[in-house]
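Run: sequence + EPU -> complex structure.
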Amino acid sequence: MSSPSTTEFVIEPGPQLSGEITISGAKNSVLKLMAATVMASGTHTIYNVPDIFDVGIMCQLLESMGAKTSRRPGVVEIVVDKITPVAPFELVEQMRASTAMLGPLLSRFGHVELGIPGGDDFGHRPIDMHLTGLEKLGAKFDVSAKGVVGTVDRLTGGEVQLGFPSVGATENIMMGAVMAQGTTTIENAAREPEIADLASMLNKMGARITGAGTSTISVVGVDELEAVSHRVIPDRIVAATFLAALGVAGGEILLKEARYDHMGMVCQKIGEMGLRTSPDREGIWAMANQRLKAVDMSTLPYPGVATDYKPFLASMLCVADGTSIVTENLFAGRFRYVDELVAMGAKVRTDGNHAVIKGVERLAGGRVVSHDIRAGAAVIVAALGADGQTIVTDTGHVARGYPDLAGDLRSLGANIIERPAG
Ligand code: EPU
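>> structure
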């Protein structure tokens, strides 16, 4: 993706969805696993890697610091030898997940220089909790308009109480603690499955982490780690996107590799909307054979309904029977896609962090914009339930998080193509 505006999706009304697809590895896991590799010299091999744009940026970031990376389908190999703990601004500003370099670089080298993190266009996204947590372990930071410079002789274990279970802060403090002297406890830690996945790889590398996936994580510092191989967990947000698509288009699908145990709350919510889902030996089976029903929902840290699900769950509610209230508790600005849904005939009113959605029978096609990864997914899902043609522009954003959303939907029967922007 050279720019988000270089591609667009064209969606026409189509049949119900049917068939199966395989859910790839989780974006929000693989990027942190890749960041963690700088903590050990040697050759790391990561499997089940999604073919998404952000993996390419993370490869470039690692290369700029001295690592060597190579990719083949589903696999990234990272050779770590001499690392310079300086992450250039031009790369860091393109991707929020670059902040995951803070903990690993400080932990191993006692020094980090990082440009200001970029990422999605949904409001101010501070990193104060990352910094205060690492300060508790002895780091000193100098923050300027250009970025963050962190230094420490060696991090020292300590007790960190997070004011909010931030995913990124939990990951950075956990990675910082891995090679610190002594024991670190993180209270009110985020519990997302991607954090447990990161801890699982770090433990294979020789770390001593317990409690990842719960609110209290304990890390006993070690002196050295070694390079390992690791398989990324499946992407629960991508899987939920296909469930939303099914809800709007109807039909029956199998999401191979998807983990039902990572998606309990979202499956419960869409169950209240009328979808049937169940764990299958190979993944998650799902069926939609009735008009969706309105439900209220609020985004919450895991195991609550993730903020990342909300845009496409809102698309489902736009064509549900009744009125729903959707509350965003994590990112204040994450309602930009609503204007696009309204342009397609949805009846949505937003007020602060709430959206009131009055379901209509059908939406109408038109020309709409993909503002970020999930906002793009939301309008694409909505288009599956629209009369007439929908053109979704700026779909380069979608490539940051979905390996081939158009191709996968097409293989389930949707009438959708991706083409260069016209
Ligand atoms: N926050 C602070 N200070 C901090 C850190 C976070 O105020 O130091 C606030 C944020 O502004 C936000 C809330 O805490 O209001 C939650 O942020 P969190 O740190 O949990 O999110 P993140 O680590 O920046 C990850 C995912 C996001 C996902 C959130 C929430 C990655 C690369 N990103 O972001 O995923 O929305 O957790 O689950 O892991 C996406 O995949 O599209 C995406 C944006």
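>> summary
The radius of gyration is 21 Å. The pocket of EPU is lined by residues 27-28, 31, 96-97, 120, 125-130, 164, 166-169, 190, 237, 306-308, 330-331, 373-374, 401 (CB under 6 Å).
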